Amino acid sequence: MSMASKTISSRLPDIVGAAHVINDPAQLSFYEIDQKKPGAAVRPGSREEVAEIVKFAAAENLAVIPAGARTKLGMGLPPARYDVALDMTRLDRVIAYDPSDLTLAVEAGHSLRQLLGLLGDHRQFLPLFVPYLSRTTVGGTIAAGVDSPLRQHYGTARDFVLGMEYVTGEGVLAKSGGRVVKNVSGYDLHKLMIGSLGTLGVIVSVNFKTFPAPVATRGFVATFEKLESVVEMRHSVARSALTPLTMEIVSPHVAELFASEAAARISSGAMPPNVISPNHWAFASGYTGNEKVLARYEADYRGMAEELGAVNVTVLGDTTRPPAFSRKREFVPIALASSPAATIMKISVLPARLKELLLQAQRAAESNSLAWAALVRGIGVIYLAILPLDRAEQSRAHVATATNEILAAAVKLDGHGTIPWAPSEWKGALQIWGLERGDLAQMRKVKKVFDPHGIMAPGRFVGAL
Amino acid sequence: MDKRLLQDLKKLLGVDMVLHRPEELLLYEYDGSVETARPSCVVFPETKAHVVGIVELANRYQTPIVGRGAGTGLSGGALARHGGIVVVFSRMNRILEVDVENQRAVVQPGVVNAELSAAAAPLGLYYAPDPSSQKACTIGGNVSENSGGPHTLVYGVTTNHVLSLEVVLPSGELVRLGSQAVDSSGYDLPGLFVGSEGTLALVTEITVRLMRLPETVKTLLAIFDTLDDTTETVAAITSGGITPAACEMLDGWTLRAVEAYVHAGFPLDSAAVLLIDIDGTREAAESQAEEVAEVCRKHHAREVRMARDARERELLWKGRKNAFGAVGRFSTTYYVQDGVIPRTKLPQTLRRITEISEKYGFQIGNIFHAGDGNLHPLILFDARDEKQLRGAVAAADEIIAFCVQMGGAITGEHGVGMEKDRLMPLIFNEDDLDVMRRIRDAFNPTGLLNPDKILPIKKGCGEIYARPIPAAGSAPA
Lengths: 465, 477
What we know:
Strand content of chain A: 15-25%
CATH class of the largest domain in chain A: Alpha Beta
Number of strands of chain A: 19
Strand order of the largest sheet of chain B: 15-12-14-13-18-20-16
Number of helices of chain A: 17
CATH class of the largest domain in chain B: Alpha Beta
Distance between the termini of chain B: 31 Å
CATH topology of the largest domain in chain A: Uridine Diphospho-n-acetylenolpyruvylglucosamine Reductase, domain 3
Oligomer: heterodimer
Shape of chain A: globular
Largest sheet of chain A: 8 strands, antiparallel
């Protein structure tokens, strides 16, 4: 037993009770991140316990990685150190929910799916239809900073998180923001926590603005021969008066992924046939409203699609839309399950540059003999899945070359990219956080304030923070 | 102040671009709040190189710097609390780019808010955050304060519309935060800097999102005989399926003041009105406007008027946006407060404000963003009478304390500045404030930039901090 393990096993049970400390190596495999196993796992039951644990870890210089349902721990660089797995799933209470005020305060370990169920009882929802929805926790979703197809209309977490309580890397329980929908009291420190992968501290609770649930939602899908046409379709909608809930571009080959056995397991229901096809690009958009509004969207979309020479047009309704939507939502896990070495890039560009970037990405993948598929948010975010056949050395070299080319292309087009998901053993060879950037020194300042001892998920973030 | 600093500033910017005589500084002692503070000098940079140069000089001479846009702020954010150099951005007022395809604009900080929307309108776009002072206030000021406005109910406040910032840090470094495309990876630095009230950096360039002008806007005026009916309607609307683009409330006293000035057609004998905008496609806006009208009627609206055309709509909104000016006809000075509460707490909060008005003997008008629970009580007083000023501040404090008690916050869109730093302990404990303080010190280690704003002076002073008596406030634009 290492020194660290000895210290851990003597102190952690005092804080949370022996029943909530895991030392057994077999059980600890469950907490592995990038093939690194922690010395112990601990399951706090309150925010005070979280603070105690981190305070202890800071004093002993133990590296802590907080996690919820452990669905997105593959994101980022491998941790430099990993002593304590902080399992947040016992912090699963709804602290306050006021449907009439449309505000919610919930602990980080709460299941997102169950939370959506609770909100649904009041005809409300959170626009967090994110990957791994059936398993993920609120805190994990926020810490990972993943987005949702609904961002087209509702934005991302930074637009509807009202406040947070967190434990800093020194074990201090603190908060920022509040529980009202408009608030400029003090610095918005909670925004820093979103997407920080646990490198600043532990999110213990989150305050949200909730939204009235849309009624009667439809989906419109049009397929095109050419990338130019599908991108033009996106631009036509952006220029129009329509304000859809979702708007995405789906590349060729996504059809095979969505028809796969993995997709059936991860998402819900059967993909309706002949909506998208393996050889075509597709435009997909969800919209809501009363009958008149729905008819207007359909008519306008049909007109635009026809003008651009769509191959096929489908309107998805109450039964056909959910399976298609859930596959779009779960694009990342579906892609990860479809290749032994799936590598997924996230690239942001200005919408006017989408076509150019997608062409270059296509070229980079194909010239390196790599299969690929892309899901593109109309707002200018591309999830590009590169799908090698194996984990062989040659595949790794091809993926490294292709991703380097694409990252450089993105920067040249005033955009930027990262590689959020890649096989652990390849991460050293890939530019996981993209190309060098000008604001890293400022990020270091933030990290130093929240985590002066460098114990919070060390090494996983941008610049190995 | 140091004569050599003045000389160096003049050398950097030109003689005319540095003000330092007392009569020249007078204007810059004020903003829209009741606070005052006199700067040592006022400078007008024209380029980012000027801004860097000013910061370097401030460092060399260890003199505080405070950024300032149009001076319409309502919490003393742009006042030089401890003297020093006030950097006015009015000459950095160019719209550098309106990018229609990507629905964004790149602007210098001194661009006036309404001018950006005016420039974008012929291209079918607009900039959504619209503070009431939008004809004067600048985007740079909006970024510092994270400003809101009536139409932020559905589209969000400044922070929801800023993609990227170029800033000059107190060290003199010029840094870009965020990116032109969405989702800059790494910590959300624009999210931290927007609303930091000029305490972390001076902003030299801003990239904002532009929205597409809606196809249809429906404006409703719902007239009520009791305040309770009005506030209950607000809660019913926002918790229903429709989020209006704006939902503003004017109480009876305020709407009478406005009507006498603007002649917007507000009914003189009502207890309150709601001014509601619904926008979107023609089909959506029409049906939603009808649904909202129905909710108003169900909650005993005496009458619901729908503006028939753009002219009628503009007249109603002119009434709202000029309300502060209208109130200025009744009282030379007034104190605009800014509190937030959960929307369902509107009825008891307005009742409490009435009690506070009676207790202190001040007329308090209420005109505010009801849809998001953001109150703006206007306390009318005579600033020449020190006792009245003290009373107005005490009444305001009591209102804010009640907002906090209701689960709200001390400011929704005006900022903390030097007006409410002493109230921060009402909502944050020492640990919360300490993390904020350390973030400030990480970027602004010597307190060169806008010193002693937002955060109360270190522990122990929070509760006993004695408020100095400010001079008369000026009416905001």
